[in-house]
Amino acid sequence: MKDFFKKLPEQAVRVAVVFLVFVAVVFVIRQFIIPPEMKEPALQQASSMEREVAKEIQYAGAQICEQCHEKEPQIKKIGYHRDLSCESCHGAAQKHVENPTEVKPTSPKKRDYCAYCHKYNSSRPTGFPQINPDTHNPRKPCITCHNPHNPKPPTTPRSCAACHAQIERAKAASYHALIACSVCHTAPEKHKTSPRTVIPTKPDKREFCGKCHDKGSPRKGAPTVDMAAHGEKYVCWQCHYPHTLGGI
Amino acid sequence: MEAAQNFMELSKQVVGFIYPNEIDIQWSILIVVYPYITGLVAGAFILASLVKVFNVKELQPTYRLAMLTALAFMLIAPLPLQLHLGRPERSYEMFMTPNLTSAMAMFGFVYLWYLMLVLLLEIYFEYRRDMIVWSSESTGPKKWALKLLSLFSTDISEKAVAFDKKTVKIITIIGIPSAFLLHGYVGFIFGSIKANPWWSSVMMPVVFLFSAIVSGIAMVMLLYMIIIPLRDGKIDMKCLDRVASFLFYAVIVDFSIEVLDFIHRLYESEESIKILSQLVETKLFMSMVVLQILLGMLLPLGIMVVIKVFRLQEEVRKLLYFVCGLLIQLGIFSTRWNVVIGGQLFSKSFRGLTTYKMELMGIEGFLVALALLIIPFVILSILIKLLPPWKKGELAGS
Amino acid sequence: MDRRDFLKHLGWVISSGGILGGLSADAWAKMLNKTYDTTKHYYGMGIDIDKCIGCGRCMQACKTENAVPAVPYYFRTWVERYVIKTDRTVSVNTLNSDEPGDVLVEKDVLRSFFVPKLCNQCDHPPCVQVCPVGATFKTDDGVILVDSKRCIGCRYCIQACPYGARYLNPETRVADKCTFCYHRLVKGLLPVCVEVCPKQARVFGDMKSIASPLGRFTRMNKIHVLKPSLNTDPKVYYANLDGEVN
């Protein structure tokens, strides 16, 4: 062993010494000087989860509201807003839960808040009640006519467009613009007050469209075609979507 | 907040749809500078290794210069990374608890390995004898600096010098795969991101490596052509021609690999091809088609073919080599830009493109990037003063 | 080193190993909350595209609850609006963004809908894989968290996320993202986006619980996840998701 070290040139020994000193310093620092919290992933993750869990809560959750406010949740449960959480409209209320007398949640009483959901947007799913805020009782606060906790409309909607605005607008630009919805869809009165329990009918046979569009139909102005020879395998609306025909 | 103002302007320049969080480019010009710098390090080292391992004797005049160039750039390499971190004061964590599945965690270890065990060690053994001789000939701080750098060694016997030479060769042999790792891992950092189809590619580490070799060889060639006249020396044309030859081969390989990647993408025509084509045709047109491909690759390639086919005069060759070297630097920098910035300009929804507004001032701004590119040359000039790459006889030319 | 030193050293090694090994589920539970056991839960979310009305209450509530910067450029959750026209062009934009919305002509529209997006809390998260310091990690209950004290702000995770769910918080300068409101989950509350949704378009579930709201959701709907080919195994399950959504 000693012979080997004697044979090793002195510059190699010098380099080796420098290297070993460096390694030793790093080793000492890492093993003994750095505290374990900086080195162990498990400890760090645990501490991180603790900090995450300790974060402040802003929204209390609808269940807590019911503990003090009995009236409004009861009203809400039977209406169209039953799935709407209290804090969706009244904002984050945890601070109110912690200090009920001094901190009050907000209460949107103007027209602008309801518009977030109910302003007409053609991408909303059909059947969702939408209005044009510029024409629907402009300037009047929505809560004047609609109780926000049970927002039943004050009068039964007259037109299907109240909830099916997108279809109505598409139809209004189509060849079927002057045809009322009730011509093709029979809607029981109950559908207007309880939409999901009773659903309007849809035509189910080709002959229905044929009443106007078959060759020899008495209806003037409607384009006709020989139904016996035209698309026999299919029902008409598979190809011709009735709400957006042609267009102006 | 003024950042919001900034974003509002940026969002006006968005084409199509981007995820809302993508409005901000995450990796800025600093992250373009970093692979450019480590590329120069790896490339310069590969040139140096041609001398020591593959015994290309004509390249001997560039050996020490290449090593010093690699060292100068290596010393600056961590700076762009530090400056771009959101929390630079925590960067030591990569040493404490590196996540072993992350390619980026390799950085500290690969960097230290390459700097200490390859570059510093090789430069030590290469210069040891000369440092001892020079320290005995100088006085004052230079004398002590040289003594320190030589680790206070004194043996300049033939046997010791022979040991040094042998060690240099061994270190270079280890150094070649280390250089590949040093720059290849950067390519892997990009190439392993499946979320980004511009980056995600098997060829990424290979493309990075070969463009690094091209840029490194070109840089050493440029420096050789600038420094020798500054020291009143004569350029060794045999050496220069040989360097240019190797550069030529490297450019051909690099170009072939990039063309292969391009053809492959177009042919397979995956989901991302539409947005990527749009990216190249609009946002990246100048930097990719003009700077990277035409000026940075095809033009130098053409020039070097002309030089090889027609036997041109020495002065003409020198001028053309110089032009090639500059064009290649521009081209490789653009390559880095196109990879890093280009990969962030399109949305991961594949439906839109955003913009990069490079700041002038600011810690990730243009001026800082420029400074980071200039400082290595300053360091190099200091190193050359302290450890001259050529002896007086060598400067006179072959 | 003599025997005494060796035994001292050995004792130190054993005791520190014991402390770390002892970080069992019980220890975690004690640390978090006396009754919460991370190994007894595994969270996921269901989103029904046909129910979303694009009201944006979820986006706004999330910003309030989680102190996300109030500008429209950082989101933990957001809603995208898709309009697919009869000429097969698709236009997409984020709800409440400053860009002017697409002026629609209804008859040109083939399909149109809203898609809520958020961190998918993947089972094979690419973000966790690439974090150089292990600052982002997956908990036992399936939530991916970011340790804001460890994150060095390198933004590699933001690059690696295929869904654009992450952002760099401009105030703390570390990476940030949706945590399924983890601080609420351990207390038995719902994430706020689920809490305030007027249509129950978002359904939150504990997959380890015997009865979970995700049960019917995953039984009755054809489920799709975003970018399945990337094999990230997201835990946000979409019902009625259109193929144009990516």
Total number of beta strands of chain C: 11
Structural class by secondary-structure content of chain C: alpha+beta
- The DSSP helix count of chain C reads 8
Q: Ends of chain C: how far apart?
A: 64 Å
Question: Helix segment count of chain B?
Answer: 16
N-to-C order of helices and strands of chain B: HEHHHHHHHHHHHHHEHH
Q: Give the fraction of residues assigned to helices of chain C.
A: 25-40%
Helix percentage of chain B: over 70%
> β content of chain C, as a range?
15-25%
* Number of beta strands of chain B: 2
The biggest sheet of chain C, with number of strands, parallel, antiparallel or mixed sense and barrel status, is: 4 strands, mixed
Q: How would you name the oligomeric state of the polypeptide chains in this document? A: heterotrimer
Order of helices and strands of chain C, N to C?
Answer: HHEHEEEHEEHEEHHEHEE
Largest sheet composition of chain B: 2 strands, antiparallel
Approximately how much beta-strand content do the residues of chain B carry? Answer: under 5%
Structural class estimated from helices and strands of chain B: mainly alpha
What is the averaged pLDDT score of chain B? Answer: 93
**Contiguous runs where pLDDT drops below 50 for at least 5 residues of chain C:** 11-27
The greatest interface here is:
A-C, 46 and 55 residues
Rg of chain C (CA only): 22 Å
Biggest sheet, spatial arrangement of strands of chain B: 1-2
Task: Write up this protein.
The complex is a heterotrimer of chains A (248), B (398) and C (246). Chain A has a domain at 69-154. Helix content of chain A is 43%, strand content 0%. Chain A has helices at residues 2-7, 10-33, 36-39, 41-53, 62-68, 71-77, 86-90, 94-98, 111-118, 165-172, 181-184, 190-193, 206-213, 236-239. The longest helix of chain A is centred in the N-terminal third of the chain and has 24 residues, at 10-33. Chain A is elongated, with a radius of gyration of 36 Å. The model of chain A has no long low-confidence stretch (mean pLDDT 90). By secondary structure, chain B is mostly helical. Chain B is built from 16 helices and 2 strands. In chain B, helix 2 packs antiparallel against helix 4 and helix 3 packs across helix 15 (366-386). The mean pLDDT of chain B is 93. With 246 residues, chain C is α+β, with helices and mostly antiparallel strands. Chain C is built from 8 helices and 11 strands. Chain C has a 4-stranded mixed beta sheet, covered by helices on one side. In chain C, strands 3-2-4 form a 3-stranded antiparallel beta sheet, covered by helices on one side. Chain C has a two-stranded antiparallel sheet with strand order 5-6. At the A-C interface, helix 4 and helix 10 of A face helix 2, helix 3, strand 2, strand 4 and helix 6 of C.
